[in-house]
């Protein structure tokens, strides 16, 4: 069952963040898809989903990746998008003085030169604590955690958002705001 949940979570991340068109699914600009439309599109592409399975994935997601609308009829990924169909109007938020970004040591030289860039995603993702950032970095290799002077950036006019799952988002972080966590 755990495998089925993980596999379904990865499928939902793929279609709700990156490639909805791969199964002919439409997302609105806030990232929402109809649950019934998702089930039908998945079925047409050989993947059996039902409301109970979707609900179980949403409820057990360690990072709270997905949200279901209060009426239960729509679902979206709360952050992490790359598809141009979605442009969630996150409210600006005042960040804590310091945030963290976990990355891999092999990216450090490039990050020191050009800062943190969003790459294929819409935002740079920042973590509220070192432990979370370490785990994010490990996904890419030998983990290293950078500090981000988010308060100083904010005072200089950089805009931050906090996704519903606690991940902080900003468009880019210039190198002068980065340090290495101890
Ligand atoms: C790196 C997961 C070279 C950046 C996590 C990262 C997160 C640069 C990689 C969420 C660079 C992008 C996002 C530069 C940034 N030169 N490398 N100038 N600027 N990078 O996966 O932050 O499981 O797109 O350090 O928990 O690792 O998907 O971003 O290593 O919240 O829900 O480029 O994904 O959540 O990698 O992870 P990613 P990320 P989920």
What features would you describe in this structure?
This protein is of the alpha+beta class and 182 residues long. The protein has 2 domains: 1-77, Arc Repressor Mutant, subunit A, CATH 1.10.10; 99-180, ADP-ribosylation fold, CATH 3.20.170. Helix content is 32%, strand content 20%. It has helices at residues 2-18, 35-44, 51-60, 108-114, 130-138, 150-155, and strands spanning 33-34, 66-68, 74-77, 99-104, 116-117, 124-126, 143-148, 161-162, 168-170, 172-173, 178-180. Strands 1-3-2 form a 3-stranded antiparallel beta sheet. Strands 4-7-11 form a 3-stranded antiparallel beta sheet. Strand 2 (66-68) and strand 3 (74-77) form a beta hairpin. The termini are far apart. The mean pLDDT is 97. Residues 63, 65, 80, 103-104, 107, 110-111, 114, 116-117, 119, 121, 125, 136, 140, 167 line the site of ligand HQG.
List the helices and strands and how they pair.
Blueprint: H1 2-18, E1 33-34, H2 35-44, H3 51-60, E2 66-68, E3 74-77, E4 99-104, H4 108-114, E5 116-117, E6 124-126, H5 130-138, E7 143-148, H6 150-155, E8 161-162, E9 168-170, E10 172-173, E11 178-180
Antiparallel strand pairs: 1-3, 2-3, 4-7, 5-10, 6-9, 7-11, 8-9
The structure holds ligand HQG.
The site of ligand HQG has 17 residues, from strand 4, helix 4 and strand 5.
């Amino acid at each position: 069952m755990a495998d089925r949940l993980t596999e379904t979570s990865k499928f939902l991340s793929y279609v709700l963040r990156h490639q909805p068109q791969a199964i002919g699914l439409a997302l609105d600009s806030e990232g929402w898809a109809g649950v019934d439309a998702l089930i039908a599109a998945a079925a047409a592409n050989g993947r059996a989903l039902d409301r109970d399975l979707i609900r179980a994935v949403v409820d057990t997601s360690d990072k709270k990746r997905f949200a279901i609308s209060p009426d239960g009829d729509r679902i979206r990924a709360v952050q992490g998008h790359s598809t141009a169909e979605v442009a969630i109007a996150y409210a600006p938020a005042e960040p804590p003085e310091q945030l963290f970004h976990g990355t891999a040591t092999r990216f450090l030289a490039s990050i020191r030169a050009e800062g943190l860039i969003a790459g294929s995603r819409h935002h740079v993702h920042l973590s509220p604590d070192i432990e979370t950032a370490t785990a994010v970095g490990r996904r890419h290799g030998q983990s290293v955690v950078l500090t981000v002077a988010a308060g100083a950036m904010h005072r200089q006019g950089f805009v931050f958002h906090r996704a519903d799952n606690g991940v902080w988002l900003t468009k880019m972080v210039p190198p002068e705001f980065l340090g290495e966590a101890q």
